[in-house]
């Protein structure tokens, strides 16, 4: 059964992980699709604005063409270094003006988006008709070649469009040469917080995905908990049936043997033997009665227990219980540390005596040699602690200890008899008194039971 449950847990966990992975993959694909959709939307919007440079400001773009031309001619005239020409291109006087103009245009046309942009020059090639083409530069796009714009990096930027321009000119007077200029520049745009915008558009899907996975995990945990609890309950019931059968067997066998002995004529004729067998029958009978009482009384819930409260003087009450306990357990060393002040509490004497005796008897049953009983009065709380040096209880069992019929599996080492009702009864009695009980213990380290009542 345990193996089956483990297998079920393992299998369900794998299915859960697989479902989460599929969910993650679907969300990721949807995100990529949304990004692509957003990118083409932006492309379309911005392409409309910048469709024609002259729409923005013809004079400024003419100035740019003029600058290209001027630099090309300067280059043909005195062949300044390429580096020098490139620098002049990139640090043109129009840089700021063009940036501002285009920025204003974006702000007017798409006020809901904060757009950073850059026009990056990729190519600057001069064709001198008489000579071969002279490439001043042709590079992969990178932000350092920005001729204007306010974008600082191309990393997250969308490529909107490429502009390829050709200009013709002639320098006939001095050099008698016609030339053509080929330029290529690209517009990159980056939308501030574009991830947030895309994620916002996916909110419903994300919420649904997270919600469905969380629901699935919660259902899985609830189902597992119910399964484990059911298994525990069924184990506890089986244990209880085994224990009670074992407990009933001895007196019943003795009773059946005794009646057989009584049936014999010789027994009936011998008064001494007859009385002794009768005594055995009586003892076994009361043992059976005691067992049944234990099951009936001790398994009552705290709401069903009827308390007959009376004023009880502490620590005198504890002293009486310990004195009785000493008589039946002369080999156990009992130490007491009671609070000095006399305190009177409103308690059910009978039930509380049985509860405390249960804890003391458990200490003996589970291997102790000595017990320490302490009482203290802190603020409005009266507390009794009972510590023993017995086998102790592993921490993992503490939460189950006060459950009905629960017994810690002891293996074959400490085959102490019991029905798993003792601590349940103690807990119910303390609860009926509106008190609390807890245990401090670990395997091999003894146990301490702390009982607390409000005064
Ligand atoms: P029972 O003694 O009939 O088994 P209880 O309800 O009295 O049932 O106790 C529940 C379990 O708690 C016991 O089976 C035992 O393993 C453990 N236990 C209780 N008291 C002690 C103790 N003082 N030291 C070690 N184990 C204890």
How many extended strands? 12
Uncertain stretches of 5 or more adjacent residues = none
The CATH superfamily of the largest domain turns out to be: Histidine kinase-like ATPase, C-terminal domain
Class by alpha and beta content: alpha+beta
Which range does the strand content fall in? 15-25%
The gyration radius over C-alpha positions equals 47 Å
Shape: rod-shaped
Bound ligand species: adenosine-5'-diphosphate
Examine the coordinates and then state which fold CATH places here, giving the name of the CATH topology of the largest domain: Heat Shock Protein 90
Give the fraction of residues assigned to helices: 40-55%
- Describe the oligomeric state of these chains in a short phrase: single chain
- CATH class bucket of the largest domain: Alpha Beta
Count the helices. How many?
Answer: 12
CATH architecture of the largest domain: 2-Layer Sandwich
What integer is the average pLDDT?
85
Compute the number of structural domains: 3
**Main beta sheet:** 5 strands, antiparallel
User: N-to-C terminal Cα separation, in Å?
Assistant: 48 Å
Organism: Flavobacterium macacae
GO biological process, one term: cellular response to phosphate starvation
Domain Histidine kinase: 243-455
Protein name: histidine kinase
């Amino acid at each position: 059964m345990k193996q089956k449950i483990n297998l079920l847990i393992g299998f369900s966990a794998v299915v859960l992980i697989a479902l989460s992975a599929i969910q993650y993959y679907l969300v990721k694909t949807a995100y990529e699709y949304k990004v692509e959709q957003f990118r083409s939307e932006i492309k379309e919007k911005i392409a409309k604005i910048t469709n024609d440079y002259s729409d923005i400001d013809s004079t400024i773009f003419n100035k740019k063409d003029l600058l290209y031309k001027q630099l090309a001619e300067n280059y043909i005239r005195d062949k300044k270094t390429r580096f020098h020409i490139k620098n002049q291109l990139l640090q043109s006087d129009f840089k700021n003006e063009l940036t501002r103009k285009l920025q204003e245009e974006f702000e007017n046309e798409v006020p809901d988006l904060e757009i950073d942009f850059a026009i990056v020059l990729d190519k600057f090639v001069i064709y001198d008709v008489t000579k071969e083409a002279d490439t001043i530069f042709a590079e992969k796009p990178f932000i350092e070649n920005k001729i204007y714009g306010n974008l600082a990096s191309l990393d997250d930027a969308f490529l909107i469009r490429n502009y390829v321009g050709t200009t013709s000119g002639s320098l006939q007077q001095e050099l008698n040469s016609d030339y053509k200029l080929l330029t290529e520049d690209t517009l990159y745009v980056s939308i501030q917080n574009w991830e947030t915008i895309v994620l916002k558009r996916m909110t419903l899907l994300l919420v649904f995905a997270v919600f469905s996975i969380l629901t699935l995990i919660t259902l899985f945990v609830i189902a597992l908990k119910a399964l484990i609890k059911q298994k525990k309950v069924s184990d506890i019931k089986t244990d209880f049936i085994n224990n009670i059968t074992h407990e009933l067997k001895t007196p019943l066998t003795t009773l059946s043997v005794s009646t057989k002995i009584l049936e014999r004529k010789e027994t009936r004729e011998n008064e001494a033997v007859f009385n002794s067998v009768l005594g055995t029958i009586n003892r076994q009978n009361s043992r059976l009665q005691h067992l049944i009482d234990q099951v009936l009384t001790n398994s009552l819930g705290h709401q069903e227990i009827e308390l007959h409260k009376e004023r009880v003087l502490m620590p005198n009450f504890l002293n009486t219980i310990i004195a009785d306990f000493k008589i039946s357990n002369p080999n156990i060393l009992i130490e007491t540390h009671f609070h000095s002040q006399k305190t009177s509490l409103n308690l059910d004497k009978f039930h509380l005596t049985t509860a405390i005796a249960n804890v003391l008897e458990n200490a003996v049953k589970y291997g102790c040699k000595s017990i320490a009983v302490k009482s203290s009065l802190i603020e409005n709380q009266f507390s009794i602690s009972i510590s023993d040096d017995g086998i102790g209880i592993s921490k993992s069992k503490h939460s189950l200890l006060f459950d009905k019929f629960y017994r810690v599996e002891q293996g074959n080492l400490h085959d102490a008899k019991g029905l798993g009702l003792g601590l349940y009864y103690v807990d119910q009695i303390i609860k009926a008194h509106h008190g609390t009980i807890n245990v401090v213990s670990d395997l091999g380290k003894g146990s301490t039971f702390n009982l607390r009542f409000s005064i």
